[in-house]
Amino acid sequence: MLTFLALTSVVLLGIVPEQSQAIAIYTGWERHALVGSDIRLSCSFFSWRWTSEDVTFSWTYRPDGSRDSISIFHYTGGAAYVDNKGPFRDRLEFVGNPGRRDGSILLKNLELNDNGTFTCDAKNPPDIVGRPSSVRLLVFEKVPIQAGVITGAIIGVVLGLLVLIVVIYYLMRFLVARRVFSLSVSKHGKKKKEGSQQRQGPVPPADPSKIKV
Amino acid sequence: MLILLAAIFVLHIACIIILLTATIDNAWWVITAGNAPTDIWARWIFVNNSWHSVDLPSQYPESYLQAVQASSVLACIFSIIGIFVFVAQLFTLPKGQRFLVSGVFQFLACLCIMIAASIYTDRFHTDEQNLGSYGHCFILAWIAFALTFISSIIYFVLRKKTAE
């Protein structure tokens, strides 16, 4: 079984790179942040080729409601070039590691105007065919709780209380039964000693395991 | 005896079905303009010849909406647990005993759906009475309250006659 798996994986690895040279770029889907906070927009890629020295990352920004994108970051030839004229001047920092295929950027001191879509495009020559990936940034005055969380919390708490009550009930029953059992055993033991001196046997105590509540 | 048992079982199943419909179907209120059913999870609007599901308006009192959602879901859960408990008790209860635990679960379900329907009646659409009317889920919620109440009373009163 193991050898079969190994063989198929080797075959697949041999076949697939010849056919799909596309690079796959991964960013988040949507990010929520508070006004004034910092946020790290992550971007990484998957490529069948080794990470080349000419790997490039570029980020573009399109504000909400606008059709134009503006380029805000570019990494090429081992150097990172951040926005020094646009809406993110002095607020953008490169925190990625291109050697590890990480092209993340850090946006500092967010404003409400920063709502928009950030697109990351990475190229790993000769693997250059790929689709850029976008992450949507939403900046809030106050981070809202998602709609279903409170409802789910109420349901969970009530059911949890119910389970707790049932467990406690059965625990009490178990403890009480054990106490009654141990009491009756000690009583039975004493009576047996007295009974062996007398001819008449004592009335045996009720079996606690048969008591039904 | 068997017929009575079957009738009680069918009543409980009917309660579950009614509770589930009332919780899931999103038609506690119908807006006359556009015949748009709404509540408690989303709203349906008819735009461009097709129905679209949209979020409820943010003017809804949020905490009350979540209370209605939570308690109607809890009513369904309690009723469903109750039917399993009833079947279990049918086979394990000693002769002459009452179906107390099943009755308790049905009563909890009754309580929860009553809470949901009451909050909805009192807090929602209070000044929109001429803009819409109550939908079928709302009516089913109140019917479910009555049926679960009757069902729980029956469980509290019923005694196990034959050993099964």
Automatic annotation (TrEMBL), chain A:
BP-aspect Gene Ontology terms: myelination
GO cellular component term, pick one: plasma membrane
UniProt-listed Gene3D superfamilies: Immunoglobulins (2.60.40.10)
Record-linked SMART domains: IG, IGv
Ranges for domain Ig-like: 17-136
Spans through the membrane: 145-171
Signal sequence bounds: 1-22
Stretches for region Disordered: 188-213
Bilayer topology: Single-pass type I membrane protein
Localization (cell): Membrane
Keyword Transmembrane helix: yes
InterPro entries reported for this sequence: Ig-like_dom (IPR007110), Ig-like_dom_sf (IPR036179), Ig-like_fold (IPR013783), Ig_sub (IPR003599), Ig_V-set (IPR013106), Myelin_P0-rel (IPR000920)
Taxonomy, superkingdom: Eukaryota
PROSITE patterns: IG_LIKE
This protein's UniProt keywords: Disulfide bond, Glycoprotein, Immunoglobulin domain, Membrane, Signal, Transmembrane, Transmembrane helix
Family recorded in the similarity comment: Belongs to the myelin P0 protein family.
Protein name: Myelin protein zero
TrEMBL record, chain B:
Annotated protein name in UniProt: Epithelial membrane protein 1
UniProt keyword Transmembrane helix, yes or no: yes
Annotated Pfam families: PMP22_Claudin (PF00822)
Membrane topology (UniProt): Multi-pass membrane protein
TM helices/strands, residue ranges: 64-87, 99-121, 133-158
GO CC annotation, single: plasma membrane
Keyword Glycoprotein belongs to the record: yes
Domain of life: Eukaryota
Family the entry assigns: Belongs to the PMP-22/EMP/MP20 family.
Gene3D superfamilies: 1.20.140.150
Signal peptide as annotated in the record: none
